[in-house]
Design goal:
Elements: H1 2-13, H2 18-25, E1 28-39, E2 49-52, H3 53-60, H4 72-77, E3 84-91, E4 111-122, H5 126-130, E5 135-136, E6 152-154, H6 156-161
Antiparallel strand pairs: 1-2, 1-4, 1-5, 3-4, 3-6
Length: 162
């Protein structure tokens, strides 16, 4: 019953695309984590190009607050069943911030695209996932200071080819 009430609340608050609606009807939602980034102009010691997120964060010196970085193993270790997985990308129009009103959560302007791992999980587990390095695709799933960030689904081989 809680899922039905929650579903209706979410639908009332946000516009959903067809995939979001299908997930919500099934009691699921998507979360993402950043796996890589495209640097369009020199960022500290990092030359332009696409890099895995560890290379970027190590080269930046400091990372944006609430940058969602985790792995599928993190979900599994938390006892969260992964119902589906895929990849995505965010073409960045600056500023892109991961927390409303916190400029320290914004990406530097040298980054123009993020590569994502996207996981479908149980709606009841989204808060736990967001507390452990994942970002809810529907920010209203968690509430608080999250910002709705739109991403484009891509074939995972596309990100591997960059």
């Amino acid at each position: 019953m809680n899922k039905v009430v929650y579903l209706l609340s979410v639908l009332a608050l946000v516009g959903c695309n067809e995939d979001d609606l299908t997930d919500l009807v099934q009691g699921n939602t998507k979360v993402f984590t950043v796996t890589g980034a495209n640097v369009q102009s020199k960022l500290g010691a990092i030359d332009p190009g696409y890099y895995d997120i560890n290379s970027i964060t190590n080269g930046m010196g400091s990372t944006p607050d609430n940058l969602p970085v985790a792995s599928k193993a993190t979900l599994e270790n938390l006892g969260i069943k992964v119902e589906g997985e895929g990849c995505g990308k965010i073409e960045i129009t600056h500023p892109l911030c991961f927390e409303d009103g916190n400029t320290n959560s914004c990406l530097p302007s040298e980054i123009n695209m993020l590569g994502l791992a996207v996981y479908t999980i149980d709606l009841d587990k989204v808060k736990m996932a967001s507390d452990n390095g994942f970002y809810p695709t529907l920010a209203t799933d968690v509430g608080g200071l999250y910002v709705d960030i739109k991403y484009q689904e891509v074939n995972c081989s596309y990100l591997s080819s960059l």
